[in-house]
C-alpha cells in the first residue's frame, strides 16, 4: 500500500497523518471486500497506541462482514492501548449500528473533523 493510493481492488485507501491513520472504505463492503481489507487492517492495528480513523463516507453498502471489520479493529486497538474513531454520515448504516447496539462501542461521528475534535476533547 502506497500512502494515499487505493488498493487494486478499490475498496480501501489509507492516509497517514501526524498522530493518526485514516482508512477509507470505498464502495460496497461485503465479504469479498472485507477479505481484501483485512490484511491492511490487521497491519495497521498491530502497533501499540495506534489512533485509527475508519471513514465510511465513501462507502455505499456495509454488510455483516464490514461490521465485523469495525469490531475487529476496535478490539485489536483496545488490546494495544489504541483507539478507533469512526466516521459515518450514512443514515442507514447509523441505523444498523443503533439497532445492533454498536453506537456506544464505535462512537460514529459525521465527519473526520468532528471525530478528531471529539477525540482531542476526550483526551484533553
UniProtKB/TrEMBL annotation:
Boundaries of every STAS domain copy: 10-119
PROSITE patterns per UniProt: STAS
Recorded GO MF terms: anti-sigma factor antagonist activity
Top-rank lineage group of the source organism: Bacteria
InterPro entries, A to Z: Anti-sigma_ant, STAS_dom, STAS_dom_sf
CDD domains documented for this protein: STAS_anti-anti-sigma_factors
Family named by the database record: Belongs to the anti-sigma-factor antagonist family.
Protein name, per record: Anti-sigma factor antagonist
